[in-house]
Amino acid sequence: MQDFDKEYVKPSRADGAFSILQLTDTHLFADLNTGFLGINTAGSLQAVIDAVLRQNRKFDLIIATGDIAQDYSEQSYINFAKMMHDSFSQPVFWLPGNHDDGPKMARVFPTVGVSAAKNVIVDKWQFVLLNTQVYNAPFGWITPEELNYLRQCLDNHPELYTVVCLHHNAYRVNSAWLDQHELRNKEELLELISHYPKVKLVLCGHVHQETDFVRDGIRFISSPATSIQFEPLSFNFGLDSKGPGWRYITFTPDGGISTDVYRLPFESFRPDFAIGGY
Ligand SMILES: [Fe+2]
Protein backbone atom coordinates (compact mmCIF):
# COMPACT_ATOMS: atom_id res chain seq x y z
CA MET A 1 0.00 0.00 0.00
CA GLN A 2 1.17 3.51 -0.74
CA ASP A 3 2.17 5.86 2.02
CA PHE A 4 -0.68 8.11 2.93
CA ASP A 5 1.20 11.04 1.52
CA LYS A 6 -0.34 14.47 1.08
CA GLU A 7 0.75 17.66 -0.55
CA TYR A 8 -1.00 21.00 -0.17
CA VAL A 9 -1.01 23.52 -2.99
CA LYS A 10 -2.34 27.04 -2.49
CA PRO A 11 -4.76 28.25 -5.18
CA SER A 12 -3.41 31.25 -7.03
CA ARG A 13 -6.71 33.08 -7.30
CA ALA A 14 -8.22 34.98 -4.39
CA ASP A 15 -11.64 33.41 -5.04
CA GLY A 16 -10.20 29.92 -4.45
CA ALA A 17 -10.41 28.84 -8.09
CA PHE A 18 -7.34 27.18 -9.55
CA SER A 19 -6.21 25.39 -12.69
CA ILE A 20 -4.12 22.38 -13.53
CA LEU A 21 -2.16 21.52 -16.64
CA GLN A 22 -2.53 17.88 -17.65
CA LEU A 23 0.29 16.39 -19.67
CA THR A 24 0.01 12.75 -20.60
CA ASP A 25 1.69 9.92 -22.49
CA THR A 26 4.97 11.68 -23.15
CA HIS A 27 6.64 8.31 -23.98
CA LEU A 28 10.17 9.59 -23.42
CA PHE A 29 13.39 7.62 -23.87
CA ALA A 30 16.77 7.78 -22.18
CA ASP A 31 18.14 9.11 -25.48
CA LEU A 32 16.38 12.37 -26.28
CA ASN A 33 16.81 11.73 -30.00
CA THR A 34 14.92 8.43 -30.09
CA GLY A 35 11.75 8.26 -32.13
CA PHE A 36 8.44 6.58 -31.28
CA LEU A 37 6.23 5.60 -34.22
CA GLY A 38 8.04 8.14 -36.32
CA ILE A 39 8.12 11.16 -34.05
CA ASN A 40 10.70 12.39 -31.59
CA THR A 41 8.82 12.37 -28.29
CA ALA A 42 11.23 14.65 -26.42
CA GLY A 43 10.88 17.11 -29.30
CA SER A 44 7.09 17.00 -29.24
CA LEU A 45 7.00 17.40 -25.44
CA GLN A 46 9.35 20.37 -25.66
CA ALA A 47 7.16 21.89 -28.39
CA VAL A 48 4.11 21.42 -26.15
CA ILE A 49 5.98 23.04 -23.24
CA ASP A 50 6.99 25.97 -25.45
CA ALA A 51 3.37 26.40 -26.61
CA VAL A 52 2.14 26.33 -23.00
CA LEU A 53 4.71 28.99 -22.08
CA ARG A 54 3.60 31.13 -25.03
CA GLN A 55 -0.04 30.87 -23.90
CA ASN A 56 0.98 32.36 -20.56
CA ARG A 57 -2.10 30.92 -18.85
CA LYS A 58 -2.14 30.72 -15.10
CA PHE A 59 -2.12 27.22 -13.65
CA ASP A 60 -1.22 25.97 -10.20
CA LEU A 61 0.09 22.46 -10.71
CA ILE A 62 0.88 19.88 -13.36
CA ILE A 63 -0.42 16.33 -13.41
CA ALA A 64 1.28 13.77 -15.66
CA THR A 65 -1.13 10.88 -16.13
CA GLY A 66 1.34 8.13 -17.02
CA ASP A 67 3.35 6.65 -19.84
CA ILE A 68 6.00 9.22 -19.03
CA ALA A 69 8.56 6.74 -20.38
CA GLN A 70 8.58 4.44 -23.37
CA ASP A 71 11.78 2.55 -22.48
CA TYR A 72 11.29 2.16 -18.70
CA SER A 73 14.65 3.86 -18.17
CA GLU A 74 15.77 5.87 -15.16
CA GLN A 75 17.18 8.48 -17.53
CA SER A 76 13.79 9.00 -19.21
CA TYR A 77 12.38 10.11 -15.84
CA ILE A 78 15.36 12.37 -15.23
CA ASN A 79 14.76 13.85 -18.70
CA PHE A 80 11.11 14.48 -17.87
CA ALA A 81 11.93 16.14 -14.54
CA LYS A 82 14.56 18.36 -16.16
CA MET A 83 12.19 19.43 -18.93
CA MET A 84 9.53 20.32 -16.36
CA HIS A 85 11.88 22.18 -14.02
CA ASP A 86 13.59 24.07 -16.84
CA SER A 87 10.25 25.59 -17.90
CA PHE A 88 7.79 25.52 -15.02
CA SER A 89 7.85 26.55 -11.38
CA GLN A 90 4.58 24.76 -10.55
CA PRO A 91 4.74 21.43 -8.69
CA VAL A 92 4.51 18.30 -10.85
CA PHE A 93 2.61 15.18 -9.77
CA TRP A 94 2.53 11.86 -11.58
CA LEU A 95 1.18 8.34 -11.68
CA PRO A 96 2.49 5.34 -13.63
CA GLY A 97 1.19 4.10 -16.99
CA ASN A 98 1.59 0.74 -18.64
CA HIS A 99 4.84 1.83 -20.30
CA ASP A 100 6.32 3.00 -17.00
CA ASP A 101 8.28 1.36 -14.23
CA GLY A 102 6.31 2.52 -11.19
CA PRO A 103 8.82 1.49 -8.48
CA LYS A 104 11.62 3.12 -10.47
CA MET A 105 9.62 6.35 -10.78
CA ALA A 106 8.96 6.34 -7.05
CA ARG A 107 12.69 5.96 -6.46
CA VAL A 108 14.00 8.40 -9.08
CA PHE A 109 11.56 11.30 -9.03
CA PRO A 110 12.13 12.43 -5.43
CA THR A 111 15.88 12.59 -6.17
CA VAL A 112 15.21 15.08 -8.98
CA GLY A 113 12.74 17.29 -7.15
CA VAL A 114 9.45 15.72 -8.23
CA SER A 115 6.98 14.96 -5.46
CA ALA A 116 5.77 11.42 -4.85
CA ALA A 117 2.57 12.67 -3.17
CA LYS A 118 -0.54 10.83 -4.30
CA ASN A 119 -3.08 12.92 -2.39
CA VAL A 120 -2.88 16.55 -3.47
CA ILE A 121 -5.13 19.03 -1.71
CA VAL A 122 -5.94 22.45 -3.16
CA ASP A 123 -8.46 24.52 -1.21
CA LYS A 124 -11.85 22.76 -1.56
CA TRP A 125 -10.53 19.99 -3.82
CA GLN A 126 -8.41 16.89 -3.50
CA PHE A 127 -6.72 14.83 -6.20
CA VAL A 128 -6.07 11.15 -5.65
CA LEU A 129 -3.46 9.69 -7.99
CA LEU A 130 -3.85 5.94 -8.42
CA ASN A 131 -1.65 3.20 -9.80
CA THR A 132 -3.49 0.96 -12.28
CA GLN A 133 -0.40 -0.56 -13.88
CA VAL A 134 -0.09 -4.30 -14.39
CA TYR A 135 3.51 -5.37 -14.77
CA ASN A 136 4.32 -6.19 -18.40
CA ALA A 137 0.73 -5.79 -19.63
CA PRO A 138 -1.00 -2.96 -21.51
CA PHE A 139 -4.36 -3.24 -19.76
CA GLY A 140 -5.09 -1.74 -16.36
CA TRP A 141 -6.21 -3.24 -13.07
CA ILE A 142 -6.91 -1.49 -9.80
CA THR A 143 -5.80 -3.49 -6.79
CA PRO A 144 -7.66 -3.70 -3.47
CA GLU A 145 -4.79 -1.70 -1.94
CA GLU A 146 -5.27 1.17 -4.38
CA LEU A 147 -9.04 1.10 -3.88
CA ASN A 148 -8.47 1.20 -0.13
CA TYR A 149 -6.15 4.16 -0.57
CA LEU A 150 -8.84 5.99 -2.52
CA ARG A 151 -11.48 5.10 0.06
CA GLN A 152 -9.20 6.35 2.83
CA CYS A 153 -8.68 9.70 1.03
CA LEU A 154 -12.42 10.05 0.49
CA ASP A 155 -13.28 9.14 4.08
CA ASN A 156 -10.60 11.42 5.52
CA HIS A 157 -11.86 14.41 3.55
CA PRO A 158 -15.62 14.14 3.06
CA GLU A 159 -15.76 17.94 2.75
CA LEU A 160 -13.54 18.05 -0.36
CA TYR A 161 -14.56 17.71 -3.99
CA THR A 162 -12.47 14.93 -5.48
CA VAL A 163 -10.68 14.21 -8.73
CA VAL A 164 -9.63 10.59 -9.24
CA CYS A 165 -6.58 10.42 -11.51
CA LEU A 166 -5.39 7.22 -13.16
CA HIS A 167 -3.68 6.14 -16.35
CA HIS A 168 -6.18 3.67 -17.80
CA ASN A 169 -9.63 4.59 -19.06
CA ALA A 170 -12.49 3.33 -16.89
CA TYR A 171 -14.85 3.31 -19.87
CA ARG A 172 -14.87 2.09 -23.44
CA VAL A 173 -13.69 4.44 -26.18
CA ASN A 174 -15.24 2.20 -28.87
CA SER A 175 -11.95 1.21 -30.47
CA ALA A 176 -11.82 -2.59 -30.27
CA TRP A 177 -8.02 -2.85 -30.10
CA LEU A 178 -7.71 -0.11 -27.46
CA ASP A 179 -10.66 -1.23 -25.36
CA GLN A 180 -8.82 -4.48 -24.65
CA HIS A 181 -6.38 -2.26 -22.76
CA GLU A 182 -8.90 -0.42 -20.60
CA LEU A 183 -9.13 -0.65 -16.81
CA ARG A 184 -10.42 -4.21 -16.77
CA ASN A 185 -11.98 -4.09 -13.32
CA LYS A 186 -13.39 -0.62 -13.79
CA GLU A 187 -16.66 -1.70 -12.16
CA GLU A 188 -14.89 -1.93 -8.80
CA LEU A 189 -13.70 1.67 -9.09
CA LEU A 190 -17.06 2.89 -10.33
CA GLU A 191 -18.91 1.06 -7.56
CA LEU A 192 -16.71 2.66 -4.92
CA ILE A 193 -16.97 6.21 -6.19
CA SER A 194 -20.75 5.89 -6.68
CA HIS A 195 -21.00 6.11 -2.87
CA TYR A 196 -19.14 9.43 -2.76
CA PRO A 197 -21.09 12.27 -4.40
CA LYS A 198 -18.15 14.66 -3.95
CA VAL A 199 -16.22 12.73 -6.64
CA LYS A 200 -16.66 15.05 -9.59
CA LEU A 201 -14.08 13.93 -12.11
CA VAL A 202 -12.16 10.83 -13.21
CA LEU A 203 -9.14 11.96 -15.23
CA CYS A 204 -7.03 9.60 -17.33
CA GLY A 205 -4.47 9.31 -20.10
CA HIS A 206 -3.67 6.11 -22.04
CA VAL A 207 -6.10 6.49 -24.94
CA HIS A 208 -4.08 9.20 -26.74
CA GLN A 209 -7.27 11.04 -27.65
CA GLU A 210 -9.72 13.48 -26.19
CA THR A 211 -12.88 12.24 -24.48
CA ASP A 212 -15.18 14.15 -22.15
CA PHE A 213 -18.60 13.01 -20.91
CA VAL A 214 -20.73 12.84 -17.78
CA ARG A 215 -22.14 9.58 -16.44
CA ASP A 216 -24.19 9.32 -13.23
CA GLY A 217 -23.08 12.80 -12.22
CA ILE A 218 -19.35 12.10 -12.62
CA ARG A 219 -17.33 13.63 -15.44
CA PHE A 220 -14.85 11.40 -17.26
CA ILE A 221 -12.03 13.03 -19.21
CA SER A 222 -9.05 11.81 -21.21
CA SER A 223 -6.60 14.01 -23.05
CA PRO A 224 -4.43 13.96 -26.13
CA ALA A 225 -0.89 12.69 -25.67
CA THR A 226 2.07 15.01 -26.02
CA SER A 227 3.39 12.34 -28.43
CA ILE A 228 1.37 10.34 -30.98
CA GLN A 229 -2.45 10.28 -31.25
CA PHE A 230 -4.68 7.23 -31.69
CA GLU A 231 -7.46 7.37 -34.21
CA PRO A 232 -10.84 7.48 -32.42
CA LEU A 233 -13.45 4.76 -33.12
CA SER A 234 -10.92 2.58 -34.95
CA PHE A 235 -11.43 -1.20 -34.81
CA ASN A 236 -7.72 -1.87 -35.42
CA PHE A 237 -4.69 0.08 -34.30
CA GLY A 238 -4.62 3.42 -36.10
CA LEU A 239 -2.81 6.73 -35.77
CA ASP A 240 -4.74 9.97 -35.95
CA SER A 241 -3.83 12.99 -38.02
CA LYS A 242 -3.96 15.39 -35.10
CA GLY A 243 -1.10 17.13 -33.37
CA PRO A 244 0.29 16.54 -29.87
CA GLY A 245 -1.93 18.15 -27.24
CA TRP A 246 -2.41 19.26 -23.66
CA ARG A 247 -5.31 20.20 -21.38
CA TYR A 248 -6.09 22.82 -18.76
CA ILE A 249 -8.79 22.21 -16.17
CA THR A 250 -10.12 24.92 -13.88
CA PHE A 251 -11.83 24.08 -10.59
CA THR A 252 -14.01 26.45 -8.57
CA PRO A 253 -14.75 26.27 -4.83
CA ASP A 254 -18.40 25.37 -5.53
CA GLY A 255 -17.44 22.15 -7.37
CA GLY A 256 -17.41 23.61 -10.88
CA ILE A 257 -15.14 22.30 -13.63
CA SER A 258 -14.24 23.86 -16.96
CA THR A 259 -11.61 22.65 -19.39
CA ASP A 260 -9.82 23.39 -22.66
CA VAL A 261 -7.69 21.22 -24.94
CA TYR A 262 -5.01 22.63 -27.23
CA ARG A 263 -2.90 20.99 -29.89
CA LEU A 264 0.20 21.67 -31.93
CA PRO A 265 -0.27 21.78 -35.71
CA PHE A 266 -0.28 18.23 -37.05
CA GLU A 267 2.43 19.06 -39.58
CA SER A 268 4.90 19.79 -36.77
CA PHE A 269 5.09 16.15 -35.60
CA ARG A 270 3.88 13.71 -38.22
CA PRO A 271 4.00 10.02 -37.21
CA ASP A 272 4.78 7.15 -39.55
CA PHE A 273 1.35 5.93 -40.67
CA ALA A 274 2.87 2.79 -42.19
CA ILE A 275 3.51 1.38 -38.70
CA GLY A 276 0.75 -1.06 -37.82
CA GLY A 277 1.04 -1.21 -34.05
CA TYR A 278 3.26 -0.80 -31.06
FE1 LIG B 1 0.54 5.89 -23.92
3D architecture notes:
The model has no long low-confidence stretch (mean pLDDT 94). This protein is 22% helix and 25% strand. It has one domain: Metallo-dependent phosphatases (Purple Acid Phosphatase, chain A, domain 2). The longest helix has 15 residues, at 41-55. It has a seven-stranded mixed beta sheet, with helices on one face. It has a five-stranded mixed beta sheet with strand order 6-5-2-15-16, with no helix packed on it. The chain is of the alpha/beta class. Fe (ii) ion (FE2) binds next to loops. Fe (ii) ion (FE2) binds at residues 25, 27, 67, 97, 99, 206, 208, 225.
Summarize the model shown.
The protein is α/β, with parallel strands linked by helices and 278 residues long. It has six helices and 16 strands.
Q: Over all CA atoms, what is the radius of gyration? A: 17 Å
Euclidean distance between termini CA atoms = 31 Å
Estimate the global geometry from the Cα principal axes.
globular
Give me the secondary-structure category: alpha/beta
The tally of strands reads 16
Instruction: Tell me the count of domains.
Output: 1
Strand order of the largest sheet: 1-7-8-11-12-14-13
Continuous helix count: 6
Bound molecules: fe (ii) ion
Q: What is the string of helix and strand elements?
A: EEEEHEHEHEEEEHEHHEEEEE
In CATH terms, what is the architecture?
4-Layer Sandwich
The name of the CATH superfamily reads: Metallo-dependent phosphatases
- Classified by CATH, the class is Alpha Beta
Helical fraction: 10-25%
Assembly state? single chain
Residue fraction in strands: 25-35%
- Uncertain runs are none
Characterize the largest beta sheet: strand count, sense, and whether it forms a barrel. Answer: 7 strands, mixed
